[in-house]
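Milestone M4 deliverable, item 7.
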Amino acid sequence: QVQLVESGGGLVQPGGSLRLSCAASGLTFSGYNMRWYRQAPGKERELVAFISTGGSTNYADSMKGRFTISRDNAKSTVYLQMNSLKPEDTAVYFCHAARVGISLYYWGQGTQVTVSS
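Output delivered:
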């Protein structure tokens, strides 16, 4: 059974940092492109960051320079380092795994990030 388990969310003040983790199990992690999405109340889910199986990365414009996605294939884990957090970064953050070459993907359950003073 495939599981993606996010952790690391919480309450942080504006300007602060958080590091999210997503631990995968039940799949061959190295064969999956990984993404972080987020969904704020009343808004659609949006892509935050992407990392390929080979380590190439891409970010939504509003996250460039503040967020860093990385992966550790040995630990089957993807990370999202978030710096200079803003209140508008408040959302539930979801991990997404997409198998390369076929239409097969999985979602985590999400972790809440709240940026507030």
